[in-house]
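Worked problem 6 (solution included).
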Amino acid sequence: MTQHAWTPASRPGIVPLRPLGFGTILGRSFTALRHNPRVLLGFALVVQAIGALVATAVLVAVGVLTFSRLASLQPGSDDFETVMAGSVALLGVIGVVVTIAATALAVIVQGVVVAEVTHAVVAEKLTLGRLWRRIRPVAWRLVGYGLLATLSILLGAAAVFGVFFLLTTVAGTAGFLLALPVALGAFVLSLWLTTKLMLVPAVIVVERAGIRRAIVRSWTLIRGRFWVGLGVTFIISASFGALAQVVSVPLSIASLGVTTIVTPTGETDTSAVIAFLIGSAATQLVIFLLQCVSLIVSATAATLVYVDCRMRHEGLDLDLLRYVEERDAGAASPADPYTLHIGRRLDRRWTPPAWPPPATSPPRPAWPPPASPPAAHVDPAWPPPAPVAAPAPAAARDDTPSPTRWTPPGAGPS
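Solution. The predicted structure is:
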C-alpha cells in the first residue's frame, strides 16, 4: 500500500493567488508595509534622508559661493544685477540636477519594494541583503529610467509653462483663457502616461528587462487594467497629500504659537529664531516621514497591479500556485515563477458554444420525436388463394356398369 507523506498547508501571502480586484489592490497596498516594515521603511528612510541631506548641502554650498560675491559689489550697479542674475540661474540649474538625483534614489527604493512585494505574494520574507542582491544587477537600469522620467517631466513642464507665459504676454487675458485648455490637456496627458508606464520598475526588477523593453511591456500589460491603475494611484496620492496638509497646518500654527509665547513683544532674538527653527524642523520631519510611507505604498500598489495584470494575461497565478506547492513539499530549488512564462497569452474569457452546431457535428435529434404514420392494416387472407380446378372425370370403361334408370309403371320403352 502506498504511503503519502503529510505536508502542512501553504502559508498565505499578502494577497490571494488569483486575479485581484480593485479593493484588494488598494487595501493590500496600505497593509503590505506590515509584512516587512523594518526593511522597507528603514531602507526608504535612510536612502531618502541621505538624498535630502546631500541635496540640501549642495544647494547651501552653491548659494553661499554664488551670493557671497554680491558683498563686494554696490547694490543697484550693473555688475550687481549681472552677478545676481547669474547666481539665481546657477542655483536653479543645480536645483534641477539635485532633483533628478533625488528621483533616481527614489527609483532604487521602488526597486527594493518591488523585490519585497513579489516575495511577499508567496509568503516569503527576505533580508535587506538578499533584496539588494536581487536588484543590484539592474540598479543602473532603474537609475537610468528614473533620470529619463524626471527629465521628461521637467521638459514637459517647461514647455507648458513657456506656452502659458507666451500666450499670456502676447494676448493678455485672452491668452490666459487660451492657455488654460493647454494646461488641462498637459495634466491629463501626464496622468495617462504615468499610468501607462507605472509597471516599468516592476518589469525591470522581476524580468531583468532593459529600459526600452520594460516600457513596451508596461504599455502592453496595463491594457484592460488602466482604470484600476489610475484609480489606485490617484487615491493613494490624494490620501497622502491630504494627510500631509492635515498634519503640517497644525504644526505650523503650533510653531507660530510657540514663537509668540517666547517673544510676546515681537522682538527678534535668539530664542524666537530657535523656536521657529524647531517648529519648522518638526513639520518637515513629519512631512518627510509621510513622503517615505507614500513612496512605499505607491510602489506596492504598482507591483500588485503588475502581478494582477500578469495573472489575467499570462496565467501567473497558476505558476505561483505550482511554486508554492513545490516549495512546501520540500523541493530544493523550485523555478522562479515570475520568469517561467513571460509573454504567454492566456485567454480566460468564456465564449458560449455556437448554435446551431456546425455542419461537421452530428445533427441534434428532434425532441419530442415526430409521430410515425399509422401502419396499414394487412389482411392475412389477402390476396385470396388461387381457385383449385376440379378434377377431370375419369374416362368410362367398358366394364363399368351404367346407371339404372327408373321407369314408372305403364310407361313404354324409351
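Discussion: The chain has a mean pLDDT of 77.
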